[in-house]
Amino acid sequence: MRIFVSASLLLLCSFVLNIAAAADNRDTIVKRDGKTVRAYILDEKISEMVYSSRPEGGSEQTVRWKDVKSFSYKAQEGGLWNGGPIKAMYDGDYDGAAKSFAGIGGISNAEGDWKLKEKEEWEAIPKWKRAYGLFHLGDALEKKGERAEAAKVFGILAESLPEHRLALYAIFRQGINLALSGGDAKAALAGVKKFTTTDAGSLAGDMEKALGVIIHVGNDDMAKAKREAGRVRSRFREIPADWIFWRELWSGILLEHKEFDAAMIIYDELHQRMGSSPKRRGRTAIAKARALKAAGKTDEALFYYLQLDVLPFAGTADIAEARMEAAKIYIERIKEMEDGDEKIRITELAKQLLNGVVNHGPLFNEMRVNAQLMITEQFSDGAAEGEADAGAEEEAPAEDAEKKEE
Question: Which domains does the chain carry?
Fold first, then answer.
């Protein structure tokens, strides 16, 4: 009898664990009324989200985007997504991120031409992976400065998943990258305008205005771009990620055109608004430091660069850049200083910052090489601390051998 009960209990426990495991695979939707729905997200359409209690074969339910506060896919947790390519993006490893996102989105670049997998194979990939993989691939290429390639990928996303919520974003980003790489963004502008009659009309209207501004920039008409930039405000302010993207883009353009004061007003605004997002705060801090340095305000720029170096709210790529740029400022100051204790102190600070870049990790090979070159060129000892230590460790056994021979 005991054996029979134990076996029954084992079967029951196994059944319960299987149910729990299945439940753990559900996605999460948080509604604006405070309710949390655990279900399987099937699609993100322009006007609504589609979900079901089962991954396949269940009855479909919908919720309007205006009623959704936030949502997350269970499969995006951990190394596949947040611990992998998303982290690589924050770390500045755009090549690695692009490779991962291309695999997730089911696309490859053969002989300079982006192509999706064969239709049946591509459609077998979960829709969220196809959409987000392609979107973030475009984003990684954009951040690498490969705007023409980014425009191609965003275009493929919009064409292959025209009913998906990200199609509007893809056309918008396609237009931006075309305009800023010498391409023709008129078709993208028309594509964004079509969405103004949908439930996403308010957002599409702001995107249309913003893309119009960028087209003026691409046409070297900054006067008109600046006049129209102030009209981009309504819907973007309601969606933090969209507002941040636009403000970062526009402030960067202002900085490139030496509109330092206007750019810094936006950086201050971004820095204050993103207090709850550490890595984004780091990104805006370094953007402001760049603006201050470009404006010749090196003392203020140095403050922000050093702030990034000691506070753990920045992405690692930003920290490496902050150390590098702070060291450059110190090196320029050293050139004009008389010999003495203060010059020695500043020299040591510059060395420490550059050594911090050299020993920063494998993701920043180019930056690390540049830092090592600066150490070699600027300082008589020539070697970074990490390399000097390694050399000492290698030579120690030889010294021991000589002593034994004696």
Answer: 21-72 (2.30.30), 77-225 (1.25.40.10)
